[in-house]
Amino acid sequence: MKNSVIMAGFGGQGILLIGNMLAYAGLAEGKHVTYMPAYGVEMRGGTANCTVVVSDEPIGSPIVGKPDAVIVMNLPSLKKFESWIKPGGILLVNTSLVPPDQQTREDITAYSIPANDLATGMGNARLANMILIGAYAEAAGVVSQDSLINSLSKVISERNARFIPQNIKAIKLGAGQVHLANA
Amino acid sequence: MTEAHDLVKGNEAVAMGAIDAGCLYYFGYPITPQSDIPEYLSYHLPRVGGEFVQAESEVAAINMLMGAAATGTRAMTSSSSPGISLMQEGISYIAGSEIPTVIVNMSRSGPGLGGIAPSQGDYFQAVKGGGHGDYHLLVLAPNSVQELYELTILAFDLAEKYRNPVMILGDAMIGQMKEPLSRRPPEKGEKASKDWALTGAEGRPQRVLKSLYLKDGELTAHNWKLHEKYKAMQENEIRFEALMTEDADFVLVAFGSAARIARTSVLMAREAGMKVGLFRPITLFPFPEPQLSALAKTGKPFFVVELNTGQMLEDVKIAAAGNRVDFFGKPPGALPTPEEIFEEIKNIYPGTKG
To answer: Domain A2-181 falls in which CATH fold?
Structure first.
């Protein structure tokens, strides 16, 4: 098994955080992992993306030109990365911020998930990234939901540990969306 | 010891390697993309009895390093391209005075202010000099987080063994990526004798560390002595990785981050039935020229991939001794993907076969 994913959105949406979570979850399952943040002069509101590879074999390049999956949290990210996805791959779209008529690929499986709306419904708009990573784990089956949940304590500081339970809820809500959202 | 197989950022692996190598002093000035190194050490060095000093500039940092290391204590600095340029005068003095130091360049892109994207544009500066005078750094080029850690430990050993500055040459890709890391207690190798260290001359003859030699013939002798040292490095310290080079029709040559990306391209080529090998210099000085020459003598053409417009290429051409050498350069901007390099391989391969 070798699986690569590019996650992209605005700076501040928590893209790098969920990328880290996936890498930690893969590591906990005894897999080889690489986490590669796109490194630029970024700031809140700028663009952010990262590439995570999880594999049974040692990983060559942490940079991937044809990822197995792409998660996009905003429209510029869809425009940039939709064409990169391997034929037969997976696309997860945050339809709260990406209009439905913007996708062009038909040779991939796309999941439309209104992550911001769902997060707001839970009372905290900042959970949108958790909803998407929960959905990704369910759709791609790369790591288990338990591993993902256990990785929260690695990426959330002790100071913010009180937020972990609602993050877990968001991950589970995201996983459930996969079965509704397969467009 | 941290837990085995923690997920660690490349820059942090350097800092952890320094701590595990017994480094006690760090002097530096923050610069992207390597500031995680001073950040980590500012917390951890005081806790192992060392000192972290944020200098007022890179020029100050390299001179503070020279002084601290002159006492025989393990010490280091780190910076990124423009900061390393500022340090060149001090680096030349350190090489001339034969003071063991570790200098990390998590390079960014130039020339000038350039940008912060990954680049291998500092190969010439690291390998061919940078500062003035007839000297060499020992240059190590890691391609993974684990190797960054291990080569940092090795850098301290080699610096003492040869009384020479050692440079770790990485870039924003290697420094910023995260991978699993196993930390282990450093090997208890034989430490270089420190009968040169400035520790206070009470009760013993005075020791002098200097790079100024004015007496007749003195500087000539000093330069030849340094030259002998560089020759010994070439005889004893060459490190490289050769992947599937024996049966290869041609051999891709790359170092550091470019080699890491190209590894996947080589595997893609093998899957497509093309006999391509990968040769990765780990020491850039001493350069594995004898090993590349041996490959060239079997008639294998080379394909050099670098994140610049062609620097290591010159050293590969010398080793190739007239054999065909192709080149794919990617100056800073976007990193090449493995697929992109694979496309280049597909273009070149037919012409190199047989």
So the answer is: Pyruvate-ferredoxin Oxidoreductase; domain 3 (3.40.920)
